[in-house]
Amino acid sequence: MSVLKAENISLSYNNSTTPILENIYLNIPESSLTVILGESGCGKTTLLNILAGFQQADHGVVKIDNQVLTAPSDQRAVVFQEHALLPWLNVAENVGFSLKLKGLATKEIEQHVSQILKIVGLSHVTEANIWQLSGGMKQRVGIARALISHAPFILLDEPFAALDAFTRENMQQLVLDLWIQQNKGFFLITHDIEEALLLSHQLVLMSAHPGKIIEILHLNFAQRYRDGESIRSIKSDSDFILLREKLFEQLRQQKLESLEV
Q1: Half-sphere exposure of 55 (CA within 13 A, CB side)
Q2: 8 Å CB contact between 143 and 178
């Protein structure tokens, strides 16, 4: 099983005396769920960009197993907060675009796209224009585009932040179903505490100024879904609610302390 690792990652901007990220160590095993939770400005998206190879740290390395990664590669796929789809292409063309760049035959691309769109529940909109889709459907296209790369690690940057509560929960269920079916490592950024609890094996809590890991919680709520329990049942469980309120208060206090500095 492969592991995506951040080893001693630190980063500062413009010679600032306060690092954006400081001494980040994190292991993201394949077939696991890792969620980052923390206040705005703690460096969550910056860490994702470093893990994806979009940005280089001042210190430390990103590895998959023993291979040091210094640029984007097909080992990591990213789903952005803004869907970043190509508006002049339809759904199928957006999902198959990377395969077209690789030079695959049209028939082979169509087969791969058909399979992936079925997995994410979009077989009925294959030829639809992007502007015809709802927000949730656009994010499904973005996830399909990440899955078709066959990358072992999927990095998601607050992908459901703009969605209504009902659609957001449907997308959370999609991530859990994909984790069960695809055996990939998922790394997700969110500000939503319930989402963080539901979608993580390891929930990574970060503080800001500097951005650093202050605690890693190992949770079993996703496994409970895998074992057959419904999302509604999990979210209404007393253990889930107590931990949700504890984290809310912890983050609230962290925010207050940062305002006093």
Answers
A1: 19
A2: yes
Q: At what angle do helices 135-147 and 91-101 cross, to 10 degrees?
A: 20
What is the Cα–Cα distance from 159 to 37, expressed in whole angstroms? 14
In this structure, the strands spanning 153-157 and 76-79 are parallel
Amino acid at 241: I
The 10s digit of each residue's pLDDT in 132-183 is: 999 899 999 999 999 998 899 999 999 898 889 999 999 999 999 999 998 8
The string of pLDDT tens digits covering residues 192-240 is 999 999 999 999 999 988 899 999 999 999 999 999 999 999 999 999 9
pTM of the model: 0.92
- The CA distance from 226 to 220, in Å, is 10
Residue 164 has a CB neighbour count (10 Å cut-off) of: 12
Peptide bond into 29 cis (omega under 30): no
Backbone angles phi, psi at 55, to 5 degrees: -140, 145
